[in-house]
Design brief:
By secondary structure, the protein is an alpha+beta fold. It is built from seven helices and ten strands. The strands form two sheets. The protein has a five-stranded mixed sheet with strand order 3-2-1-4-5, with helices on both faces. Strands 9-8-7-6-10 form a five-stranded antiparallel sheet. Helix 4 packs across helix 5.
């Protein structure tokens, strides 16, 4: 995020911090050998306060791999063991193995990690600085999410999609010739890099296609929401789009449809679409 970007400045605005001098050794992650993905994974919850997402999520679970720098953000309806168990399995995937998890002492973390027979190291209770590196990642994701929501024009209820999109960009963008995506999957990401909320043309699923006339174009306008990943962050060429027609105020649908498609083309003339609708 850039200091000369108005949206970035608005999203990052916060009270100036006054830090106390503390023992810096308490701010370190476990000193264990880290040679591959899964050797050390950190996780922590964040609260969306009153900003319930369009799908009813109230929390975000951020997971990070120490070796590769790979991140994942999981919107969650509740803080419970079952949600954490699912997130751990999804982050790990079918081919990798998580050896050690580091988190705070929240009961949902303790019980979820124990149920999956993984080693678990926890931060010192009531000392937030021992979980500092995780909290800094959370702050980065929070600021990035607010920034791309500001740029897209979508309401704050889309934070769950914006957060996942921002984390995906952190994973795939190259830095010094490599990326977290490459470090984990040993190949560069091959999909199109499209801004969150961008106006795109896409071929919709059959349920929408059959409502179009025979002589109409077989593509429609939509808003780009992100990338659909399978367990283990495996990508099979699927993009996540919301049909633009569903945002019309005259639309009588109770929910905006979310489509997973393979064909998507950014609108060259209108790469960004700031919505005037609320949803």
């Amino acid at each position: 995020m850039r200091d000369d970007c108005p949206a970035c400045r608005r999203a990052k605005m916060k009270q100036q911090q006054r830090r106390r001098v503390t023992n810096q050794s308490t701010n370190k992650l476990p000193a264990v050998p880290v040679t591959k993905f899964g050797d050390l994974v950190t996780m922590d919850h964040s609260t969306a306060s009153n900003d319930e997402s369009v799908e009813g999520d109230n929390y975000g679970l951020l997971m990070a791999d120490k070796k590769t720098g790979f991140l994942a953000m999981y919107p969650c309806i509740e803080k419970n063991v079952r949600e954490v168990q699912w997130c751990l399995r999804d982050f790990e995937g079918p081919k990798d193995h998580i050896n050690l998890v580091y988190s705070d002492n929240a009961p949902e973390f303790v019980n979820a990690v124990k149920s999956q027979d993984k080693m678990h190291e926890t931060s010192t209770p009531h000392k937030s600085e021992t979980n500092g590196k995780i909290e800094r990642k959370h702050r980065l994701v929070h600021e990035g999410t607010r920034t791309i929501l500001e740029q897209s024009g979508l309401t704050k209820r889309w934070w769950s999609y914006a957060g996942k999109h921002f984390v995906m960009m952190l994973n795939v963008l190259l830095k010094e010739g490599t990326s977290a995506w490459y470090e984990r999957h040993h190949q560069h990401f091959t999909g199109k890099l499209i801004p969150f909320g961008a106006l795109v043309d896409f071929r919709p699923p059959k349920t929408i296609l059959k409502t179009l006339g025979k002589h109409e174009a077989q593509s429609i306008k939509g808003l780009f929401l992100g990338y659909h990943l399978h367990p283990g962050a495996r990508w099979r060429g699927e993009y996540v789009i919301a049909p633009l027609m569903d945002f019309d105020k005259s639309n009588k649908r109770l929910r905006i449809r979310i489509c997973r498609v393979h064909e998507v083309y950014p609108d060259i003339e209108k790469p960004w679409l700031c919505l005037l609708y609320t949803s």
